[in-house]
Amino acid sequence: MATNNATAAPVCPAPMKVTSNGAFQKEDPLDFALPLLIVQIILVVTLSRVLAFLLRPLRQPRVIAEIIGGILLGPSALGRNKEFLNKIFPKRSLTVLDTFANIGLLFFLFLVGLELDLRAIRRTGKKALVISIAGIALPFALGIGTSFVLRSTVNKGVGELVFHVFMGVSLSITAFPVLARILAELKLLTTDVGRIAMSAAAVDDVVAWVLLALAVALTGSNNSPLISVWVLLCGAAFILMAIFVLKPILAMMARRSPEGEPVKELYICITLSLVLVASFVTDTIGIHSLFGAFVVGILVPKDGPFAGVLIEKIEDLVSGLFLPLFFASSGLKTNVATIKGGQSWGLLVLVIFNACFGKIVGIVSVSMIFKVPFREALTLGFLMNTKGLVELIVLNIGKDRKVLNDQSFAIMVLMALFTTFITTPIVMAIYKPARKGGKPYKHRRIQRKDLDTELRILACFHSTRNIPTLINLMESSRGIRKRGHLCVYAMHLMELSERSSAISMVHKARKNGLPFWNKKREDQDRMVIAFEAYQQLSSVTVRPMTAISALSTIHEDICTSADRKQAALILLPFHKHQRLDGSMESLGHSFHLVNQRVLQRGPCSVGILVDRGLGGTTQVVASEVSYWVVVPFFGGQDDRESLAYGMRMAEHPGIKLTFLKFSITGDIIAEATADELDKDNEIVTEFVSLSKSNESIKREERKVESKEDIIGALKSLSKANLFLVGRNSPTMPLMETSTDCPELGYVGCYLASSEFSSTSSILVIQQYDPSKCIVEQAQYETSEVADSTLQSAV
């Protein structure tokens, strides 16, 4: 007969139910899987975003905030409170959390594969390839050396070979996506350092995955070397199957998704299903499910809209919600408290030193052989020492496969965090490339003595919406002079975000170079095609460009490019666009600030274009151009610049120009200086001389005594297609209420208001003032004197 005193077997806790019956049924929602997961996601995402905001002044990549957020939620900080840990992250909920985290990780690695273009890696130059190999070999060797120390102290009992490989891989990895964002943030993408770093990091990324596959194949509960051989052979067979079976399927779907047509939902569904199938196969083989997703991403054709649509469909959900769960999962495994005592902290210092020493010394020494300057070589070494998501993936696989214990895992996580954190401040301290690199030049204004010189315009746009008006404005501005022709640099302004697709834009900027353009373009960008088509049909030289940066700093790209291209005018789109009902809708305050910063720091004249459909929504051919342009003239340097631009436009046979000169009596404006009046009279005299030989030019003069007279005079011309106005016209405010657009000036604000017109476009121009820069003032005045002397001699 069995005794009742026998020791009872331990009872496993019942699995969590999915949903609760509600608080009114006296059930705690946090005892159920779905409500608890929702709370975990909200907590993780909120904490990571708050930390990212706090670290923004330090210009740290978001991955730093996500790693720190995960550590804070774990047993190192908040998790030290057992009540919090058992309530929010109980052990029985971790399986669900890890599952969602790994699903997000699967699709994120698919996105990384989509961003990685193997053709670019194959084109990697010898210098970048050798530097990449040096940046892998020495850290890998030091990683193996470090593994001997760790294995004899804090990581005893683990397999020798597999631990050596894992440590070597951990120290030799470079985080390609994180590096790309750091380079973009510091505006180093188009420098020699940036180009080498991107090429070398792309090679590192692929090599790291190959080494990680080897390390994973060597792990497992079965110690037989034959098992590892079978895993590697099956992994190789999977890659061959993917190349010869999956790649043709993906290529077929990409071919059937032409530019300009929506990608079929079926193709999206099939591709995402193939990601899951490939992940299942690689997990079954024993490598890791992530490899299957990464391989499928690499095999998706990069040409055409197919890859872009895939990224657009999934990146926000994956990067915004699911991926932070992986960092939380990693943080819950990280217990910094296990690093205690002199030995443990000494090992942490050793690991960090070897990681930095291996990367930096290996890369600097090889770079010096290729005659890279020491400062640039040192910068390259620190940049290539960047860790990130792939590093955490390696460490988590090692933790799950029992290769790393709690203490060694915490040491390696802190190493990854430290090496990435120091990258930005150190690079900013040791490497400061000259941003002004352009040669000094004279023609920084439209108004000039020599009218036969080339007019260069940097025309910026945000989207296809701005292109027809820009092209029609270019056509109207091209003039008839044979020597003084028009050269336009059409710059597409693209915001660099934290999305994974930003890496694609980084690739584009890197391929374009600092001038941001390339004659041999492989991508058939619709915007580029529009400008190139116009160039073929006209005598205007058009060079498409791309500026990719955060909106808070993109004005630096605009000003630097204008200086290097020796532009006389920067054209900026107004931060508001017109809706169908005629009202103006803002694109955002960030775009507003971009225009204000360029006005403050522009190296030449600046114009802001309020687009109300100049010529309609399509490009107008030269023979059909028929615009009425009005130049209101109050006096001052900005009005003179506007008149100079109008006089150039008047050379086009399809332009009718009206010059409206205001003679103001009374005290409604301050009196101009004698010097300003002389300059005003000089350009008016030039205009009168031009009008005598051009019947399409009309001159009107209005005597006004109040702002009502000014408004009445302007309204009489409200049917005009385009107004050219000076930003700082010496007049009084024409609006009853204060404006939120001081960059347009008093006249521009009124013309842009809905009470004036809904059909007239406005170009507000600010003339370049060399007195803002002493060096440029001296150079400008010297050029003017030389020019005057030459003309006198002639």
UniProtKB/TrEMBL annotation:
GO terms for cellular component: endomembrane system; membrane. Residues 46-427 form the Cation/H+ exchanger transmembrane domain. Gene3D superfamilies: 1.20.1530.20. It is a multi-pass membrane protein. Keywords: Antiport, Ion transport, Membrane, Potassium, Potassium transport, Transmembrane, Transmembrane helix, Transport. It is found in: Membrane. GO terms for molecular function: antiporter activity. GO terms for biological process: potassium ion transport; proton transmembrane transport; regulation of pH. The keyword Iron does not apply. The chain crosses the membrane at residues 32-51, 63-79, 99-116, 128-149, 161-184, 196-220, 226-246, 267-300, 345-370, 377-397, 409-431. Residues 484-622 form the Cation/H(+) antiporter central domain. InterPro entries: Cation/H_exchanger_TM (IPR006153), CHX17_2nd (IPR057291), CHX17_C (IPR057290), CPA2_transporter (IPR050794), Na+/solute_symporter_sf (IPR038770). Residues 629-769 form the Cation/H(+) antiporter C-terminal domain. Belongs to the monovalent cation:proton antiporter 2 (CPA2) transporter (TC 2.A.37) family. CHX (TC 2.A.37.4) subfamily. PANTHER family: CATION/H + ANTIPORTER (PTHR32468), CATION_H(+) ANTIPORTER 19 (PTHR32468:SF81). This is Cation/H+ exchanger. It comes from Corchorus olitorius.
